[in-house]
Amino acid sequence: MAGKIKEIQQDQYQQEVLDKKLAVLDFYSTECPPCEALAAKYEDLSYLYGDDIAFTKIFRQGNKELAAKLDVSGSPTVLFYKDGEVVGDKLSGGILRSDLMRNLDALLSEEKVKEIHGKITPKETEADVVILGGGPAGLTAGVYLAQAHVKTILVDTALPGGYVATTHQVSNYPGFIEPQPGYMLSHYMSEQAKANGVDFRAAVEVNKVDLDKKTVTIDGVETIKAKKVVIATGSRPRPLGVAGEQEYRGNGISYCATCDAKYFQDKEVVVVGGGNSAIEEALFISKFASKITIVHQFDELQANKVAQAKAKADPKIEFKLSHEPREFKKYGNMDMGVVVEDLKSGEKSEIRTNGIFVFVGFIPNLGSFEQKMNLDQWGYLDTDANMQTSIKDVYAVGDIRTKAYRQITTAVADGTIAAITISKDFA
Ligand SMILES: Cc1cc2nc3c(=O)[nH]c(=O)nc-3n(C[C@H](O)[C@H](O)[C@H](O)COP(=O)(O)OP(=O)(O)OC[C@H]3O[C@@H](n4cnc5c(N)ncnc54)[C@H](O)[C@@H]3O)c2cc1C
Fold first, then answer.
1. In this structure, are 328 and 225 located in the same domain?
2. Considering 328, 343, 358, which residue would you say is the last residue of a domain?
3. What's the 193 CA to ligand 1 centre distance in angstroms?
4. How far apart are CA 135 and CA 187, in angstroms?
């Protein structure tokens, strides 16, 4: 068994977990990417904490009765025990090392925690290329680099897959006749990268990225030192900060008309926003939907005059100007509500609709980079035709870079171009 971890069966639960003073139990499955992401962290921590806390793991599907008894329905799930009682957080999904450590520390005395933390030794790993971000752009770069025998480590703050993993259905990625569930498409992409030899660091905390030195420090312990960096961290929709927004994101609320408008044939939708993208996307949605209500905070639209004129001439489009959304509600499949406030009267009302599109802009995920790179006016990274940024040997691919169209196909194209360019330097 790797590390100081004991694999148990449910009939050993009493003896190996409940009868121990302190214990931790990991319910795992095979062919489970988040379980793989956890395995290295769990093993590493077992060396540090394993003399004081019993580290155990159990195959969930082979021990269904115990899993059901403990209300464990997904893998991985990690439970912490003190004197035979479950304590602390029930961790699942993309589990961070810091979450594990916080719960392990909570089982121990202050002195013990100090002693254990004192034993943590920083680790340095060398690679030719480090990729930040495991969406379609980063994964494609990884596939090409690994196939060119370029030693590549891919770092993601979440589980690999990027936006595709959370997209309900993808119908415009070539090679599939039927629409693909986004999580399956992203699964194929990350498994392909892994099979070709890309080394993953998934669900990690990125502490520091030094683009001049080409170093990336993760989880406070490992510094990856590379010769080149590929930034593929994507962008995220600008949040409205409205109740229900997080909950129904991708499940009633969409941020991509190209991707989702087709599901609203002869249906009614609400579009939030009044700038260029909102109005242009509303015009695109109008090819499908029977009615579009545009909710915009100002008296006038901000979009260019041509788009405004087209929208105003479109009989399917109605406007609720000087209104802001206050809450999103879901009543059932394709049955949504938007509570809006009239900013002039303060009166609130609800618009019932089949779907909601929010177009109030995206924010590029540039957070962890210390060095200044050339950006466009919207804050996206400028690159040359080979995806090289203004810093030598630093490339940017996918949604993070300046481009007209942000799609999976354009992200994989960027990843391809950067990787082929880079691999020539390692030939
Ligand atoms: C709701 C929605 C639906 C969509 N549907 C479609 C569709 O049907 N078809 C289509 O072609 N396109 C669709 N798109 C667009 C498409 O998903 C994106 O263009 C594409 O995913 C961009 O890929 P990417 O690799 O650049 O970034 P992303 O997919 O955003 O991946 C970025 C990755 O970087 C990671 N990351 C972020 N910050 C850091 C950091 N500091 N360090 C390390 N990792 C980090 C993230 O966890 C993520 O895994 C959709 C977009 C949205 C928002």
1. no
2. 358
3. 16
4. 10
Q: Per the structure block, which two tokens stand in for 159?
A: 């589980």
For the chain, which residues score pLDDT lower than 70? 1-2, 370
366 with 227, same domain? yes
> Given this model, what pLDDT does residue 370 score?
66
Express each pLDDT in 136-189 by its tens digit.
999 999 999 999 999 999 999 999 999 888 777 788 999 999 989 889 999 999
Task: For residue 176, give the amino acid letter.
Answer: F
CA of 234 to the centre of ligand 1 (A): 5
**Test site for ligand 1: of 408, 410, 412, 416, most ligand atoms within 8 A of the Cβ:** 408
| Helix, strand, coil share (%) of the chain residues, nearest 5 | 30, 30, 40
Instruction: Examine the domain organization and report whether 253 and 216 are in the same domain.
Output: no
- Residue nearest ligand 1's atom 27 by CA: 234
The reply to whether 308 and 252 lie within a common domain is yes
Find all residues with CB under 8 Å of 109, minimum gap 6, and list them. none
Unique residue bearing structure tokens 């690999």: 160
Do 20 and 82 share a domain, yes or no? yes
Whether residues 215 and 69 fall in one domain:
no
Pocket of ligand 1 (CB under 6 A): 132-138, 155-158, 162-164, 167, 170, 172-173, 206, 232-234, 250, 254-256, 259, 365, 367-368, 398-399, 406-409, 411
- The tens digit of pLDDT for each residue in 231-271 reads 999 998 888 999 999 999 888 999 888 778 988 999 999 99
CATH (domain of 61) = 3.40.30.10
- List beta partners, residue 217: 208, 223
Write out the residue range of the structural domain in which residue 31 sits: 5-117
Residue ending a domain, choose from 337, 358, 379: 358
Helix or strand or coil: residue 361?
coil
